[in-house]
């Protein structure tokens, strides 16, 4: 997943950087911003969770997301 892919996925899910940070379990939106700006590598578990969020409504529901 590229930084642009992550940004697109987050926006598709209707989440701000802060909301996405909460969902994937990182401490702040600053971390998400660094991933999206290609300053840091996107961790594998975040890539997997993002894919599940996009493909599986049950995962979104379980995490309290309406997108």
Task: Tell me briefly what this model is.
By secondary structure, the chain is an all-alpha fold. The protein is 66% helix and 0% strand.
What does this structure look like?
The protein has helices at residues 3-12, 17-24, 29-36, 44-55, 57-62. It is an all-alpha fold and 67 residues long. It is globular, with a radius of gyration of 11 Å. The relative contact order is 0.21.
Alpha-beta content class: mainly alpha
Order of helices and strands: HHHHH
The DSSP helix count reads 5
End-to-end CA span = 20 Å
Which range does the strand content fall in? under 5%
Silhouette: globular
Let me know the number of strands: 0
Rounded average pLDDT: 95
pLDDT < 50 runs, ≥5 residues: none
Characteristic terms for this protein:
67 residues; mainly alpha; 5 helices
Q: What's the arrangement of secondary structure elements?
A:
Blueprint: H1 3-12, H2 17-24, H3 29-36, H4 44-55, H5 57-62
Helix pairs in contact: 1-4, 2-3
């Amino acid at each position: 997943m590229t930084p642009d892919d992550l940004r697109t996925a987050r926006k598709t899910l209707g989440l701000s950087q802060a909301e996405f940070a909460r969902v994937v379990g990182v401490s702040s939106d600053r971390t998400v911003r660094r991933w999206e700006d290609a300053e840091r590598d996107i961790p594998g578990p975040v890539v997997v969770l993002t894919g599940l969020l996009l493909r599986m409504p049950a995962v979104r529901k379980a995490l309290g997301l309406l997108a």
